[in-house]
Amino acid sequence: MIDTRKWWERGRLNCLTPETLEYAQEMDRLREETHRILRAEMQRPVNEGPPSPYLTAAEAARYLNVPDSTFRKAARWIPITATCRYRREDLDAFAKGKRLKEPRAPLKGTGRKAK
Fold first, then answer.
1. 86 pairs with which residues across the strands?
2. From the CA atom positions of the chain, what is the Rg in Å?
3. Ordered DSSP codes for 22-49
4. Which letter does DSSP use for residue 10 in this model?
5. CA–CA distance from 69 to each of 4, 11, 15, 22, 81 (Å)?
């Protein structure tokens, strides 16, 4: 569909030939198709790839469906990577009741002091 108002505002309506009219209609069709594709792409989530096997503490708590504070207490028995991430397979094993390692001491400056 041609937007004749724009052509009229530009003073070009009187110079439309069948070729320019066909060209203008094709450009309108391409513009609308481009807008449709862009709208669909903008609604697509950014990270649609496979989920990462590594989770932060907050993500791990949500993964196990426990409060953050509960996870922080239990996390002493779960191995952690150098980037402070938890592997999903370790979380699954822990959820099945396996202690994966000896508990590590709580990080300094976090939690309550020992009595």
1. 55
2. 30
3. HHHHHHHHHHHHHHHHHHHHHHS-S--S
4. T
5. 63, 69, 73, 66, 20
Q: Which residues have a Cβ under 8 Å from the Cβ of 7 and sit 6 or more positions away?
A: 13, 16, 24
Residue whose token pair is 């481009």: 34
* 31 and 8 in a common domain: yes
Whether residue 81 contacts residue 109, with contact meaning beta carbons closer than 8 Å, is answered with no
pLDDT in tens, 60-108: 999 888 888 888 888 888 888 888 899 998 888 888 876 655 655 555 5
Structural domain total, the chain: 2
Residue 17 lies in domain: 4-43
- Write out the H or E segment, with its range, that includes residue 94: helix 88-95
Two structure tokens written together for 106: 């709580």
User: Is 49 a residue whose pLDDT tops 60?
Assistant: yes
Q: Give the length of the chain.
A: 115
9 pLDDT more than 70: no
Give the per-residue pLDDT at 33. Answer: 92
